[in-house]
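I had to read the description of the data format several times before I understood it. The format is easy to grasp once an entry is in front of the reader. For illustration, here is how one protein appears when written out as sequence plus structure tokens:
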Amino acid sequence: MSTGSRVFIARLAGIGVFDPAGDQLGRVRDAVTTLRTDRQPPRLLGLVVELQQRHRIFVPMGRVTRIEPDQVVLSSGTVNMKRFERRRTETLVLGELLDRTVTIHDSGDKATIVDLGMEQNRARDWVISRLAVRTPGTRLGRRRGQLFQVEWNEVDGLALPETDQGTDALLTTLSDLRPADVAHALQDMPDKRRIEVMRALDDERLADVLQEMEENDQVLLLASLEDERAADVLEAMDDDDAADLLGELPAADQQRLLELMEPDEAAPVRRLLTYADYTAGGMMTSEPVILLPDATVAEALARVRNPELSPALATQVFVVRPPQATPTGKFLGAAHLQRLLREPPSALVSGFAERDPEALRPDTPIEQVTRHLATYNMVAAPVVDDQDRLLGAVSVDDVLDHLLPEGWRDADRAVGNG
């Protein structure tokens, strides 16, 4: 087995897992251990590997033949496809030990775990033998944030499941993941740890992650925040997602949080809450790309380059008469990205914006919305009121969220073996 003398586990997060033929099976998301009470280094039981569609499985360490800086190689491509579920006696290394506050046994100093080193013992078992820790550096003459390594048995506090635990190192391992992947990673953590991490995320990141979670989890995690923070996160969410989440709360809680939001942020959410579920109004976003008639192609292209736009909303711009904010002035038409790319940058978008003769109304049921998108090969469609004012746009991803069965984000997928 070619592995090297020591491997630091946090550095494995996100690297590929391959079979002997070189085919990638998935990526490392965590490692599993069982803590001991006798201060001896614990044995690493295996890796949590994420396959396609965010399906996570457990791979025993005995299946690992090689660990390199950019890959983990297994002894074969046949793996147990059962979804990983942490047992009560097991501990997630990254999810529960990273950022744990421990005490250096000899000096009594406090330190924070920033990584954990594993190596093989004589029995060929992988054990967590060393810790990379950082001290707060409060003593005179000590460099602040000093980083050093200690043996596992040189610290106290590791066997206690509810000791103080920060989030900095874990947030670093999650920083490169997409919001949907972060949401999925949090679902495997104990409730206490999950809430700690959610509270440590900034408002924008937390909003993105919440939007990728099941409604029940959204409600529980929002309730764990102070009201002012919850209102800030709702402001950072897409207005349709914020409305969907608020719609799951009791009326008194809805009203309290809406009053804490900025008036201009709360207004579109209040409007969306008036529409029935499974209608165009209930699914739409009130913030598509909206331009006035004097906007040029160059301006339109600059707007759709916004990385925060979903791919569906970035495929077209909607042209209206003032006012520009929804509900707008008269809706004039939509210009698709492909057309924008064929026109001179100085051309006015209103000159070639096309008007859909059958624009959706806010009370259009989901079945009709689906047929409309399919009939006209659209990924997003405008929603207008009786006065021909643009209220928003409903996109394919909005429709899919409502058509898929409840719990689809957590459903096990049938993923082929490598």
Q: What stands out?
A: The radius of gyration is 26 Å. The first strand starts at residue 7 and ends at 8.
